[in-house]
Write a structure and sequence with these properties.
single chain; 436 residues; alpha/beta; TIM Barrel; eight-stranded parallel β-barrel; two-stranded antiparallel ribbon; 19 helices; 10 strands; 9% strand; globular
Length: 436
């Protein structure tokens, strides 16, 4: 059972870009081919997305970072979203998700696809629900046909991966409602589907029409990101029956997709206490046959509004060390407001720190070499080299600007530990700054 043997589009893209992908990842071409075919690695690239950078997610490729952008019903500023998209690439994100819920969604999506060459993901359910909400109707009034039509439209437009909440069953939604969860269902997609199933007294249409969805995604090489609609929304809810029931469903759905040649990722938990991160990640990977795992954070504490990018980076580093493949950033705006450009930058950099930390601990050559390069540059007080190895070179230049002509940093000055044993002349070259 091989992905590429049943997915000629994926096979063609992989052959065309294999040499460049192998060089970028530092992996033998055969390793990449085997992993994509086995479903433990996906290749994000919809041919309809012009100039898209084909991007590998999954073991043993490097850990990637995703940035969420998109309008909200309170803030609909398309120019700002395009600015955030451009900034995300500059900051080092490997993919984007457009989570827009207000405005002309097809036009916004088209503008983002035209503006950036990073793979773009979406949540088609948002567009369907928003159309009904904009008419003053219930967001769960959509039909099953609308869902399929929206997925087909977005696939044809060039979307590279889609979050589809196929694993949320009526039983799972009931478990979440009756299990004493503190925060219930926190996924927007999961909650919309839970409402739809209750109001229509029917099973999840993403699940009942899964074969139709597979046909669409196969035709366009759209990777399905199997959404975690029942993920824990706080540490107290992590690892409950509803979450694991959905994970088991996602594993079965990933296997069905693989049989058809469709690539899948698994979306992972959001809020997980520090001591449960390992068991969560390893459990999900085992139940889904090692499919690429896409995690939101996870956040290791619920008490850090304004600093959730840090809470997410702590969890993200652990998650990546234990097998997660794709880190969805969190920003300082999480749980508070719509992220602005500065939030996007901070969130991406925090996730890149997490990825670098995990890959260094895993002994991956590129990460280890970068760490060692920075260490040697610091020992030599080589600021140009340090800037080059830094995850945020712009910030290094900015923070050092006032004393950029000095050999040492402004913290230590002539007491620089790196120079203390070298026999250098320690005469202070400038008058130290003082404050009254």
């Amino acid at each position: 059972m091989s992905i590429c043997s049943k997915n000629p589009t994926c096979s063609s893209i992989l052959r065309t870009h294999l040499a460049a992908l192998a060089e970028a990842e530092g992996l033998p071409p055969r390793t990449i081919e085997d992993a994509v075919n086995a479903g433990t690695m996906v290749l994000l690239a919809n041919p309809a997305h012009k100039n898209v950078i084909p991007t590998l997610i999954g073991q043993p490729a490097s850990v990637k970072v995703n940035a969420n952008i998109g309008t909200s019903m309170f803030v609909t500023d398309v120019a700002m979203e395009l600015q955030k998209a451009s900034l995300a690439k500059k900051a080092g994100a490997h993919a984007l998700m457009d989570l827009s819920t207000a405005g002309d969604l097809p036009a916004i999506r088209r503008d983002i696809l035209d503006a950036v060459d990073l793979p773009l993901g979406t949540v088609p359910l948002y567009a369907v629900a928003q159309r009904h909400l904009a008419k003053g109707k219930d967001p769960s009034d959509f039909t099953e046909e609308e869902i399929i039509a929206e997925i087909a439209q977005q696939a044809a437009a060039g979307v590279d991966f889609m979050t589809l909440h196929c694993g949320v069953t009526r039983r799972g939604a009931q478990l979440a409602a009756e299990s004493g969860r503190v925060t219930g269902i926190v996924s927007r997609g999961g909650s919309i589907l839970g409402r739809w199933m209750r109001r229509h007294d029917a099973e999840n249409p993403f699940l009942t029409h899964y074969d139709d969805i597979l046909d669409i995604c196969l035709a366009h090489n759209v990777t399905i990101s199997l959404g975690d609609g029942l993920r824990p929304g706080c540490g107290a809810d992590a690892g409950d029956g509803a979450q694991w029931e959905e994970v088991i469903n996602l594993g079965a759905l990933a296997r069905r997709a693989k049989e058809c040649g469709v690539q899948t990722m698994i979306e992972g938990p959001g809020h997980v206490p520090l001591h449960l991160v390992q068991s969560q990640i390893q459990g999900i990977k085992r139940l889904t046959d090692g499919a690429p795992l896409y995690v939101l954070g996870p956040l290791t504490t619920d008490c850090a509004p304004g600093y959730d990018h840090i809470a997410g980076a702590i969890g993200g580093a652990l998650a990546a060390f234990f097998g997660a493949d794709f880190l969805c950033y969190l920003t300082p705006a999480e749980h508070l407001t719509l992220p602005g450009p500065e939030d996007v930058w901070a969130g991406i950099k925090a996730s890149l720190v997490a990825a670098q930390s995990a890959e260094t601990a895993l002994g991956r050559p590129a990460a280890v070499a970068r760490n060692l390069g920075m260490s040697k540059a610091r020992a030599d007080l080589d600021w140009e080299a340090m800037t080059g190895f830094a995850l945020d070179p712009d910030l290094v230049r900015k923070r050092r600007a006032m004393h950029s002509q000095e050999k040492e940093c402004a913290m230590c000055g002539a007491l620089c530990a790196m120079r203390m044993m070298t026999g250098d002349n320690f005469a202070c070259p400038t008058k130290p700054e003082t404050k009254e």
